[in-house]
Write a structure and sequence with these properties.
Length: 411
């Protein structure tokens, strides 16, 4: 029986056919190796999303929360500073030895930090080893974004990036919950066993003999790599400003809930934003062929700025009003992340896609750190509603930086 007999036409039913609604995802699933690549991408994201909280709970089990927080910061700093280098190694050398070397180094660093914590080592050693854990992380998740660029066409790329953003959103929800349960209910060491298992699995899948998910190494390019491109520098600036705005919202909303004596809403605020982001990015993946030309980066950033402005207005009314706006404000967050990665891959010099994606990840971390520090201070000093008013301005600036950055028109 033909698909047309299975799925009724929209013109006869008066509503879109589910078959047609998911046509973009069905097309993506026809890409050779789709399920293998999707499994690698989701597993690598889930493991990464567990690391921060797992490290915090491990170190705090024998040291102060201050030391634990500093260890997490050092791990993030180590990962952010070395991400472009690891991405360049993937682009310019065979993936197998690079990933296996990173895996061996991270396993050694993980064992060392667990041993140091269990033996009551001083904060300096724990933080140094934590930085090594982050600095040696195999760049599988970033690498998979460059793989999507190499195996997809104009029709399927945006759907692949939307799926990647949806998986990241799902991982950020599930990962911390799993890490917290394993640490607090069983043992602070068990989350690292789970993370290590996931990391080994993804590396084995990528480097296996039958794997076709990694491209051959590229020729050596300019010593600045992607930073030599003015367009990419603008994209990185737009990405950093956007992530600063997202982090600002994540930080200010819990402070707002505390200031309004509504701390019970804190989890609902952040959860609603995450769910809105997941739903929005997944929905974008079903409509990429129809909306590709309309949903440019400045347009999506403008929509996010409007959502942040609505949050600022709701904060002047009541905590419940903020809760109602949160899912709407979060709708385009995942879509912006997806489009930033799509545009970054399109603008990347030949053979430097992984390094470009790594720079985007580094700017994500830098923007997140800046947003947390600056807006937490503003919310405490000037009040949360005032801090929220500044977020749309920041996002609008990101939209200006991201104007006229075109994605590929065809392949």
């Amino acid at each position: 029986m033909s698909p047309s007999r299975i799925a009724p036409d929209a013109s006869t039913t008066g509503r879109p056919s589910p078959y047609r609604f998911f046509a973009d995802y069905r097309t993506l699933m026809c890409v050779p190796g789709f399920w293998r690549m999707a499994t690698i991408g989701m597993t690598s994201k889930l493991g990464a999303s567990m690391t921060g909280l797992s490290l915090l709970l491990l170190v705090s089990s024998s040291s102060s929360y201050g030391t634990a927080g500093l260890a997490v910061s050092c791990s993030t700093l180590g990962q952010g500073l070395t991400a472009p280098l690891r991405g360049r190694l993937i682009d310019r050398h065979p993936a197998r030895p690079v990933l296996l070397s990173c895996l061996a180094a991270q396993l050694a660093a993980t064992i060392a930090v667990i041993t140091a914590v269990r033996r009551g080592a001083d904060a300096t050693l724990i933080c140094t080893l934590s930085a090594a854990v982050g600095a040696s992380a195999p760049p599988v998740a970033v690498m998979m974004r460059s793989v999507w660029h190499s195996v997809t066409t104009r029709t399927t790329l945006n759907t692949a990036m939307a799926l990647d953003a949806s998986m990241m959103g799902a991982a950020l929800i599930v990962g911390p919950v799993l890490a917290g349960w394993l640490s607090l209910s069983l043992s602070p060491i068990l989350p690292f066993a789970a993370i290590t298992t996931m990391t080994v699995t993804t590396v084995v899948l990528v480097t296996g003999r039958s794997s076709n998910v990694h491209a051959p190494p590229a020729r050596t390019g300019h010593w600045l790599g992607p930073l030599a491109s003015p367009l990419l520098r603008r994209l990185l600036a737009s990405d950093a400003l956007f992530v600063t705005g997202v982090t600002a919202v994540d930080v200010v909303l819990p402070i707002y809930a505390r200031q309004e004596q509504a701390t019970e809403l804190t989890g609902l605020y952040l959860g609603s934003l995450a769910v809105g982001s997941f739903v929005g990015s997944f929905a974008l993946g079903t409509t990429t062929q129809r909306l590709r030309r309309r949903l440019t980066l400045p347009v999506l950033l403008g929509l996010f700025a409007l959502g942040c402005a609505a949050l600022a207005g709701a904060a002047r009314l009541s905590p419940m009003a903020v809760l109602m706006v949160c899912p709407v404000a979060g709708l385009v967050i995942g879509s912006v992340f997806a489009l930033l990665r799509t545009t970054g891959g399109d603008l990347a010099p030949a053979g430097q896609v992984t390094e470009t994606m790594s720079w985007l990840s580094t700017l994500d971390m830098a923007g997140g750190a800046a947003g947390a520090a600056v807006f937490a201070h503003l919310a405490d000093a000037k009040g949360s509603p005032t801090a929220l008013v500044l977020v749309p301005v920041l996002v609008a600036t990101a939209a200006v930086a991201g104007r006229r950055l075109q994605t590929r028109q065809g392949r």
